[in-house]
Amino acid sequence: MLVIQIILLFFFLFAWSRVFRKYRLNEIKLKELVIWSFFWLIAAIVVLVPNFTSTIAKIVGIGRGADLVIYMSVALLFYILFRVFIRLEKIENNITKITRELALKDNNKKE
């Protein structure tokens, strides 16, 4: 086993422990725990069995396993960015709504 594999595995284990801790503190839901656990498990498999990505890459018509990992990573990051953007828009709308309600209540008290 290469040194980089060991380092990455320890990092993945650390990252998963942070996810599990968030779950135990009720900061994330079971669904999120399962999704992140699956993500870190796949990452560990890719590190432990590097040819795994090459095999999958050939099945989907991509030349190298590293290219597959990069393509999938970019797609995942764009999806996460989209989800964050949607959540941010929702929060902004809620803040606007609450601010309007507070302003109307404050205006009614003055009259």
Q: Can you walk me through this structure?
A:
This protein has 111 residues and is mainly α. The chain folds into 2 domains: 1-49; 66-111. Helices cover 87% and strands 0% of the residues. α1 runs antiparallel to α2 (30-48) and α3 (51-60) packs across α4 (65-110). The protein is elongated and about 75 Å long. The model has no long low-confidence stretch (mean pLDDT 93).
Features:
4 helices
Which helices and strands occur, and which strands form pairs?
Blueprint: H1 3-24, H2 30-48, H3 51-60, H4 65-110
Helix pairs in contact: 1-2, 3-4
Q: Could you provide a short overview of the structure?
A:
This protein is mainly alpha-helical. The protein has helices at 3-24, 30-48, 51-60, 65-110.
Radius of gyration: 22 Å
Task: Please bin the fraction of helical residues.
Answer: over 70%
How many strand elements? 0
User: How many discrete domains?
Assistant: 2
Summarize the main sheet: none
Pick out the low-confidence regions: none
What structural class do the secondary elements suggest? mainly alpha
Shape, per Cα inertia axes: elongated
Determine the mean pLDDT.
Answer: 93
Strand content: under 5%
Number of helices: 4
The end-to-end span amounts to: 75 Å
Helices and strands, in order, run as HHHH
